[in-house]
Amino acid sequence: MNPAIGIAVLLAVLQVSWGQKVTSLTACLVDQSLRLDCRHENSTTVPIQHEFSLTREKKKHVLQSTMGVPEYSYRPRTSLINKHNIKVLYLANFTTKDEGIYTCELRVSGQPQMVSNQNVSVLRDKLIKCEGVSLLPQNTSWLLLLLSLSLLQATDFIPL
């Protein structure tokens, strides 16, 4: 085999294996819907397939998938938002019957052996409410400056 071809194949395999690793799976509640955030690396141009599933009483229920067929009963209750480094699944009308272990599984198209997944255990009474997106930057020193200016004006250190 030509060494250049061998190196090209090795680089392609490395790109594919690094391109789809699940980095975190979190769950929270939005109104009456469960939200699952599946964050992942995405350093490949090859399409990434996904599968969200629920394991309850030792039985796996596929909720949303591009790798197989989701269960019919979950189809009208699920919606997916697919971004570059995150896949967000919403499960509407979440109840205690939907409690269990949720899995996000990713696979690069054409590479069935290269699978990455994460699990999260979900109990309705233990779920936190999803936080909104903060419009404030992480460094809020500018906010402290504004507050201190108002305080200085109120104490007549700075005239109006």
TrEMBL record:
The keyword Transferase does not apply. It is a lipid-anchor; GPI-anchor. Keywords: Cell membrane, Disulfide bond, Glycoprotein, GPI-anchor, Immunoglobulin domain, Lipoprotein, Membrane, Pyrrolidone carboxylic acid, Signal. It is found in: Cell membrane. Residues 1-19 form the signal peptide. Its main location: membrane. GO terms for molecular function: GTPase activator activity; integrin binding. InterPro entries: Ig-like_dom (IPR007110), Ig-like_dom_sf (IPR036179), Ig-like_fold (IPR013783), Ig_V-set (IPR013106), Immunoglobulin_dom (IPR013151), THY1 (IPR033292). The keyword Disulfide bond applies. This is Thy-1 membrane glycoprotein. It comes from Jaculus jaculus (Lesser Egyptian jerboa).
